[in-house]
Each structure stands twice: as structure tokens, then as C-alpha cells.
Amino acid sequence: MAFMPGDGQGEMPRYVDVEWWVHPAQENKFKKRINLSSVIAPELIARVRANAQTTQLKLIMTFKGDQLEVKAEAYKWR
Q1: Domain ranges of the chain
Q2: Taking CA atoms, which of 16, 30, 34, 43 is between 20 and 30 Å from 73?
Q3: What is the pTM of this model?
């Protein structure tokens, strides 16, 4: 997942909708709406913006059955 500079006039999206299946043959899919303000701290956004040429905001989603864990970190890629 990536947010481009033009998304939302330079602001972070407020929510991300996620859908997943535990097994491809499973008919029931799981859905969850993630409030990004509870995952991404303002300090993290400031850290990414301070060095936007080499730092990206990285969301890590871990799926465990019907549970979803979301973490955010600043990722230095250069």
C-alpha cells in the first residue's frame, strides 16, 4: 500500500478499508475499517515529512484468522 503525494491534497487519508480471506476457498471474507489516526502518530508523520526524499511511511498489516493488527513505521529506503 502506498500513499502518493497528491492523495488528499497532501493530507493522510483518515481511514483504510481492508478485506481478506483466511483461505481462498472460504466464502466468508473479513472486513475492517482502520482509523489511521489511531495507528499513525503525528510525530511519525513529521519524521517522514522531514526527510521525504529518503523516508516513507510503512504500514505493516498482520492477519491472524479474523484478526488484523496494523503498525506504522518510518522506513528509510535510501
Answers
A1: 7-76
A2: 30
A3: 0.72
